[in-house]
Sequence to fold (309 residues):
Amino acid sequence: MKNIFTYSTAFVLGLALVATPEADAQQFSKRKQYNSVGFSLNAMNYFGDVTPVTNFTSLRFGATRVGAGVSITRRFYPRVSGRFGLSYGRISGDDTKAADPNDPDARFRYNRNMTFRNDILEASAVAIVDLIENRNNYLKRPDFVPYVFAGVAGFYHSPKGLVGPNSAGLSSGSYVSLADLKTEGQTSAYGQTQLAIPFGGGIRYRINRNFDASLEIGWRKTFTDYIDDVGGRYADRASLTTEAQRYFGSDITRSVSTPDATFNPGNFPGFNAAGSQRGDEGNKTDWYIVTGVTLNYILTPRIKNPKFR
Fold:
């Protein structure tokens, strides 16, 4: 994962340096710069602990959720634009659906039995590098333009766990906010406002004089392992003081909850004992991915005619 992030970011920054020499800044006048506003319809997925395999490439398409976003873009140079965006979306995960109880490598997660959803509100600023140059104004822009991008983002997230059948008095089928529960016995709750590094690519298509459409895919490398509330080891159940803490921190596992007809939780003695593994090893962080279609409207720039001399 580290290599993918490092090489992708270096590639985008390298293109930006090549694409914006000093000569371009002088030749590309302000008359050719322009702004556009966009509306996006997105699909969101995530990579983390509650996926079929706990690595960067693993996602479950059945967990895809719809999101939306708005953005404003400024074209600065023949290849380079800057974009600020706001987006909202939801990610989700379900051990029951992501993990195969008959797979020796996945039975652990099936027994863990975690189900969550997380609403994410993101603000991002990225540099976009077009792979096809356009030194003209917006009227003569190319019909198809592939591009790459990278930047920085901040996001607010709020993971919620799904309550299953239980004897603790919790409402089955309801969702409970998890961030403040400290389900792994943390001394303090993890932050719900986090930073991420967005990077990816897409292709933009000119519809007419003022409209472009684009298809884009972007990864978000986060710096938290808790967008799914699973990141470490089981806490001592005795240290969990509320019914919700005990349920999501320990009792939700099939080893102690009502088993289903196709699974024998007795194969996992001491599964949720204090200090036992709950999340992936190696202090990995979670990622999420945004795939979207955007409609951009170009704000016609004002062009001042030179005075007669």
Remarks:
- The two ends are 61 Å apart (CA to CA).
- The chain has a mean pLDDT of 86.
- The longest strand covers residues 144-162.
- The CA atoms of residues 92 and 135 lie 43 Å apart.
